[in-house]
Amino acid sequence: MLSLPDPTSIRKVADWVELCLSTETPRFSKAQLNSAIDLFSGTEPSETFLSDGWRELKYREHLYRYPVFAVRERSIERREGIEISKEYLAFLILSLYGVRGTTRDPGKLFERITNRAIKKYLSGNSLVFGWPGVVTEGEANESQIKRKIKQVADELGERFVEAPPARFNDRGVDVIGWIPFFGGRSSQIVLLVQCYAGQDLRGKVAVPLDSWYQYIHWGFNPIRGFAVPAIIPERDWHEMATDMGLLFDRPRILNALSADTYDAELAAEVTAWVGEQLSELQE
Length: 283
Description:
about 280 residues, alpha+beta, Arc Repressor Mutant, subunit A, 2 domains, 5-stranded mixed beta sheet, 3-stranded antiparallel beta sheet, 10 helices, 10 strands, elongated
């Protein structure tokens, strides 16, 4: 059985149920969930805790375009005929256990997946700004980051002004999306997105738009966004949107991908990483 990292957290329990339903069991009853939480915590959960977990899963069910699970009165069941994507499993693993693995960088995989979702959501263009070739501490110099930002400005038809000091690396931006007009001129919708594959969202700083206004003279100022593999809690949604900009959490990214064209190379890398992680977690 997959381990439950924090049996006292409603969010972690709900993530764990989603992952177990996708990989190990087609059904969970309330009694089974009660026993599982007792096993991992050493304490039987209260009826209130179980009810809150049930409500969280019901809330999540309606966020997915094609939910993997159905929440009944006394059980949660895997839906028949629904394909379980490797991206969905990858997001659940990241949300539950954090960034893991040494053979592949799951943070970079998440950026590439998010890039596909943003391109589909905008029905426009997008690129991964921080991958490949992001400036690292050992090779940092002003010309590298200058070249990267100038390439972005040129591709978007905007006016390059200056580059940040190399120590700022990608300056909080992992994915850039935009909706171009025919003719390639500036003054268009541009989205600067920070991707965060970690678990603790506390203290995360939004994309510094004022700084980006210095690097590129935009015809129309960009907006910022924030992407995570977790589900942002309903109680935190408004404040996080206010602080971080346009939000892309697990359901929003997966819903966009459900209508996306297939990227065989990325899919193979995600599949391999998920396989490695599940093998380790199920040992």
